[in-house]
Design goal:
Layout: H1 2-12, H2 17-23, H3 30-39, H4 42-57, H5 62-65, E1 70-80, E2 95-102, E3 109-114, H6 123-128, E4 138-140, H7 148-157, E5 160-161, E6 173-175, E7 189-193, H8 196-201, H9 203-214, H10 220-226, H11 235-257, H12 259-282, E8 288-289, H13 294-328, H14 335-338, H15 346-353, H16 381-390, H17 404-413
Parallel strand pairs: 1-4, 1-8, 4-5, 6-7
Antiparallel strand pairs: 1-2, 2-3
């Protein structure tokens, strides 16, 4: 088991098997770590991440942040060698780690895709291949996470796609009929109307295709890549596009009329960006995947996601144990205070460490005796803050903060060039 843990750490942080073996002082060899990495497939890494996610979902503290029914999908660029099968003619070489992050700060699924692919093609595939207990039915994304066929397919699959679209005022609001007019919002709509007869004619084909995707007989990625813009003469593409026009018009109207929805989209997409930053912080061995094989590149991204989920679970355990210690002192608390502490913030994790609590990673956190959401079970943010400040400040000790000089030394040590002034890192 220790060998597998070291393998995940070596590849998820991009530190490499040689450096990890050198720091273990003969306890493990490079050959043993490489052999363990070869036995890890992408499917096995997903299963390991599912175990961590399910354990996290059983914690009472996880329910304080959200229900887990909402997720956000977004991608971040990871550099690779230009001369490999994944790199394409793009302004940015490398690949995109497309993460699905739930509103409980944990990532159920990850893809590694080329830069030239529209991210919306993979947005439903990640939701379908998610085997954890957290099953979101609402997904938020940005402009790259939507298209007309994706709107139609997501609706048939039972997912509510609510993206944050850039320049939404340039999109067409389709009328239900050509003669339909509205008193106050008529200027939003164009002259185009929905072709309901086309949807009715191909209703059976749409349902048959959706069932095939649900049963795993057909990949949604394969379908959506075939139903590209150049497939305008394809009848199935036209049907999905027409249905997507209906769903997108309804979504845009909801976006304009519901301020709470706009706030939710912003909050969840910010959590997705925070997870990206947290995973990038954990990849301290470098940001370049020095390998040409796509399977290995995808495994590195999944290893990094597994480490991030494991650290988030460990932080949630620390929060739970610290909360129970404060509750044992008879301190009344408000559950809303706990919801303000995020597990992906570096400062919060350092602050909890200042409590002097050293959790055992082999055991589960102490169970709450009063149940979820009751007074005395979860800690007050103010109480945690006072304890943290009394032991060295809310942001952790000065020696724990990274500095540019140390990062440059680490880059020289592991063979990466340190960033120079005037050039991007």
């Amino acid at each position: 088991m220790a060998r597998y843990v070291l393998t995940v750490f070596a590849h998820g942080t991009l530190l490499g098997t040689s450096q990890v073996a050198a720091h273990m002082r003969g306890q493990v060899s490079v050959y043993e770590l490489s052999l363990a990495q070869n036995k890890h497939t992408a499917g096995k890494i997903d299963k390991a991440s599912t175990v961590v996610i399910n354990a996290f979902n059983q914690l009472d503290v996880a329910g304080m942040w959200a229900t887990g029914m909402v997720a956000a999908a977004d991608g971040t660029q990871i550099d690779t060698w230009e001369n490999n099968l994944l790199a394409e003619t793009s302004i940015r070489y490398g690949g995109i780690a497309c993460l699905h992050v739930s509103n409980t700060y944990i990532a159920p699924f990850t893809h590694f895709i080329p830069c030239g692919v529209w991210e919306a093609v993979y947005i439903t595939e990640g939701l379908l291949r998610n085997d954890s207990d957290i099953q979101p039915d609402t997904v938020h994304a940005d402009t790259q996470g939507q298209s007309l066929p994706v709107f139609g397919l997501a609706a048939l699959l039972g997912f509510d796609l609510l993206p944050r679209i850039r320049n939404w005022h340039d999109l067409v609001f389709y009328r239900p009929k050509e003669r339909t007019r509205y008193q106050h919002i008529d200027r939003l709509f164009g002259e185009e109307a929905i072709d309901w007869s086309l949807i009715e004619t191909h209703r059976t084909d749409l349902l048959r295709t959706t069932i095939s995707i649900r049963e795993g007989r057909l990949s949604s990625v394969t379908l959506l890549r075939r139903l590209a813009n150049h497939s305008r003469k394809n009848r199935l593409y036209r049907a999905f596009r027409e249905l997507g026009r209906v769903i997108r018009t309804i979504t845009l109207l909801r976006y304009l009329s519901e301020p709470a929805l706009r706030e939710q989209i912003t909050a969840i997409t910010n959590r997705n960006e925070a997870f990206h930053g947290f995973a990038d912080w954990l990849m301290f061995g470098g940001r370049l995947i020095g390998h040409k094989v796509h399977d290995y590149q995808e495994k590195v991204v999944k290893f990094n996601e597994l480490i991030a989920n494991a650290v988030i679970y460990s932080t949630a355990c620390d929060i739970t144990d610290a909360a129970n210690e404060i509750a044992a002192e008879g301190e009344p608390v408000d559950p809303d205070d706990l919801a303000t502490i995020a597990t992906v913030h570096h400062a919060h994790r350092a602050s909890l460490r200042q409590l002097g609590h050293q959790p055992d990673p082999a055991r589960a956190p102490t169970e709450n005796t009063a149940g979820r959401g009751t007074a005395g079970v979860v800690p007050r943010r103010a109480r945690l803050t006072r304890r943290c400040r009394s032991r060295g400040g809310g942001r952790g000790p000065r020696s724990a903060r990274p500095c540019g000089r140390r990062a440059a030394c680490r880059g020289r040590r592991y063979g990466a060039s340190p960033p120079r002034s005037g050039r991007p890192p």
